[in-house]
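Our preliminary data section would be incomplete without showing what the modeling component actually yields. Below, a chain of 249 amino acids is followed by its predicted structure, encoded as tokens that our downstream tools consume directly.
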Amino acid sequence: MGIVTPTNKEVTRLEGLHLYHFNASNCSMRVRMTLEEKGLPWISHHVNLHKAENATPEYFGIHPKGLVPVLVHDGVVLIESTDIIDYLDKTFTEPKLRPKDETEETKMRNWMSLATENHIHVKTYMFANKIGKLMAKTETDLEIYRNLQDNKELREFHEENSSPEGLSAERLTNSTEILKNCFGRAESSLSRHKWLVGDTFSLADISWVALVVTLINARFPFEQYPNVLRWKDAMQSRKSFQKGILNWM
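Predicted structure:
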């Protein structure tokens, strides 16, 4: 989606780089890591999802789905984390975080798109195995959320998670199988190369390490993917990982 026109006009007056984010959000992680890779100064606006600080008319006036992250650059508002990091790499060109070869760049974009497509499956796995009860909404909270949230998928997800039964076994099984398939593809690629796209560190790696961090916390069976674990260790050795992810955890 990229650039949006906010109804909350206060953010359009902001100068510099401002990031609305949550410390444990995997989508926020990838934007913070990209900012640190670029060495860019940025101003933090921490939105505590556990306290539902995003479920307000003011915040929905910034992000139409009430999600994090949001990047505001000199009053221009961008949403969707993979669009944000792509924007940062194109706007602040050094160091470049994409392959020079067009074919390799296409592969990078495919990995980034796959990360975006799997967001709901990562969310399902994390909620079912780690934070579902913590994030369950009361009926009053659900009513507020329904009135703010236009996205049907997100409404149904939070209503199911907030039900006495929680997320269904069918939903969890489906999401788990999809994630295993994705990490099987990553395992195959990383058996041949250092990074997800050949031997060039790129936005693809930043997009996926955030998912790995989140899923490790939910005890996803990464022991089945030794090359993914080797790659994860290489990612953790980068200063941007320390500053953009670990320091916020």
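The longest helix spans residues 169-190. Residues 2-91 form a domain with the Glutaredoxin fold (CATH 3.40.30.10). Preliminary results of this kind motivate Aim 1 of the renewal.
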